[in-house]
Protein 1
Amino acid sequence: MNPNSDLHYALEAKYYTSKEIFEKEKNNLLSTTWLFACHDSEIPNVGDYFTFDLCDESLFVIRGKDGHIRTFYNVCQHRAHQLVQGKGNCRAIICPYHAWTYELEGNLRSGPNLASVQNLERRSIRLQEVKTENFKGFIFINFDNNAIAMDGWFPGVKTTLGEFVPNINLLKPMEWVEIPEKCNWKTSVENHSECYHCQINHKAFSEGVIDPSTYDIQPQGYCLRHTTQMNDCANMSYNVDLSVPHAKEYTTFFIWPLFAFQVYPGNFLNTYHWRPEDVDHCTVWRGWFSEHGEHDEVISKMVIQDRETTVAEDITLVESVGRGLKSRGYKPGPLVVDPSCGVNSEHSIMHLHKWYREGMDL
């Protein structure tokens, strides 16, 4: 019990260090929220598939003959052999074990000697599907088949994202940057979701991209919306075409719990998606997008600058927190929740903790 009910305290260390709680997260919170799979440009043609792992499950997305993208558990309904590996293209999904064959839409087509099985209702056998949504070209899945659509979770985000990135339908990944971090996934997400630390630790970002005096973060459904103005043009680390709407603004849409759209001044889109590995490790994937995935020199320089400054700085921060959370000397302190919000406030972390408690039924 907190001695002052008006204060909001950080989560106890056990929520970042307990293996048992991590397992509960996978079976509860992460199994009932929208999680990123891939970009639809990675499976452009009928029969293209892409495999990935989430919550200890192997899954694959595949484009059907009808053009629709579906996600299936990567397991044959016969005797549980995995069906596909990596990425590729197929005319039908054929299990390597006994050659049971499925249509691209998941229904069983054939299998050796199946005709000898009496009373077999072939139409009743199909791959187990996972709820899937295409969100402006980004494919998300939800293990909960009764989950409401993403527009219900993140109201207005799809429309506003399209306004900030008017060419989003032309964008494809130009580069993926893999960032292993020795910390719990929530430590990394929380670090991303506040800018209380930015002016102290991110000089290039605070002085060469954004104007910290205008920075704020507000919830929008289960999204944290970061907004600020760009820094003075003379201080910017790259040139910005000011003729494009919203070009002078920076915004991030953090999609609870493991994804973020980040739009730099000049309407440059990049993304974060987190992959929890175990209680002490996660991988952050930074995606950088350009029209048709073609090389863009400005974006290429931004990738390098981001990796050498903000990313490197954040790795140091979150891994130090990861070590500190295991100390017997740590007692959770109060969050700095400023009623006026702004850059030096942790009200966004208060919202994350509220969503976490809801998802974990605490």
Protein 2
Amino acid sequence: MNISQNQRKVYYLALALILVAIALVSTWSLWLKPADSSSLIAPTPTAAPQATPAPLATPTVGAAAEATAAPTQTAKKTSTIVYYQDNYGYLVPVMCSVPLADGIAKATLSMMVQSPDNDMQAARLGLRTVLPENTSIDLDISGGLARIDLGREVLDMADAAAESNMIDAIVQTLTEFDTVDRVEFLIGGQKREKLTHGTDVSKTFTRGDINVESMEPTMSMTDVSPVMLYFPADSGAVIVPVTRMVEGKSDINTAVLELAKGPTGDEMLESVVPAGCGLIDVKVENGVAKLNFTGEFVNLVQNSDGGRLALKALVLTCTQFDGVKSVELYVDGQPYDAAQGELGVPSFMNIADSIYYEAIQTQSNALFEVD
């Protein structure tokens, strides 16, 4: 019987999977051997009052409602927003699932500490953790103020940029919770003016702009306003929010025009519109933003993901403005078929489970691709 090359590949793959399954079953059997019952009882920690985000069943951008988990609800999950960084230092928020319990805010920060497990989870997203290994975290939230005491490990950061990213990531993470609007830092139980490389930690922090680009030298500080733009990361996995300073008023027309100009970094982020594509006009009618691009826009489908992240970035950029509920795309005045009608607002810019699933799908398609 003649066996094709593809059939041979499938056969070897199936054999390998069977061997792996046998090994896992053997390991699982050994792990389930009876153990001394006292070794299975963990001490019950006493947690400070924490803010907890809304359950995963109803995720929202910045979800952060108060919630208290009953002892019998240990199997339930909740959504929490973790701030990682990419290889270029951009902060990237990701919605992750964690067990629903008291102390979600502290648990969220703990996911940002360097460790084998945390680093692996971040790497699966193409990202990195922001706090040094073995950093201890004590957290108290009261009256809108989150007072966080970090271990002295944070005094050994590589440089000022790493220090600043860590502080910004912590502030952004904590202020995702409705019960936190201010953050105060202690280091090793003591109040400090600055970290080792000069980062100021003496003040009380409030939520601010994220990933702020450098201003053009010709801009005047008295006539600029920030606009949030969203770009796909060069990893092709996540969306990165960027704050750009623009002259005059920040509105949807300005935002889409700036988005069409692309990122300012050298290949650190991906452009949303294809090369050579121009913006003809932007109209908002009955809550729908209608974006009209030149013919080059159809080249969007040539992206490795078919333009999925680019379309998502467009929607996020437009729907940040009041009154804009969805987006329609046009090319030279004609509806763009690939948009499939109106594009609604994603539940969040980056959702860990969705990113993992899409990565598995991509790898599977590549593995079983027929020559």
Protein 3
Amino acid sequence: MNKKNPIQELRLTHGLSQDELAKKVFVTRQAVSRWETGETIPNTETLKLLSRLFDVSINTLLGSPREMICRCCGMTLDDATTSKEISGEFNEDYCKWCYREGEFTLDFWQRYAELGGQEGFEQFKQQIASEFNALHIEGLPQVEELNVLTGSYINLEYTLPTGVKTKLLNDHATYLGNQLPCTFGGSRCFGLAASMQFLMVCTYEANGEDPELVLYKRR
């Protein structure tokens, strides 16, 4: 799509004239023309109507001026992965796997209100980051950001000193975590995971290969 003129591209893709589009969103043809030349942009309510009509995010209508990131899991968002409200409007804060039709799908987020709402949850994440930093693990950079991750995404299999292979997380649970590069260089990364009960730190190569457990600590 031509980012310089997304509304025009969408209109043409849907086979609409400027007059036809204007009638659908309750504006004049001249208004549509000014949007397409970049002279003006639609107001907020009209952007919502256009978003619903073309089934794209407002970010796309504006020429994708910002990179959208899911505030829950941290994945990059586009029109195919952005969540929607019950009304059908896009919610550009979350992906469709973390938030769907007015509800958070991850149990950790369903409980965030117990922690004092969004502000309280952010404070809780900073507390967990501080606890990771207080471990002073060699090679682990300063932990500044944590995301909510599903267990199935980060549940690696470790070889214990006894030789037994095991997984320590629950595929169906959610955790606060992140991946950080080792400060010593090389391809090895640190993986972090935390719940209300524990902190876990591991290292691994690309794609989770050759994982090693560094620390598992009760909070």
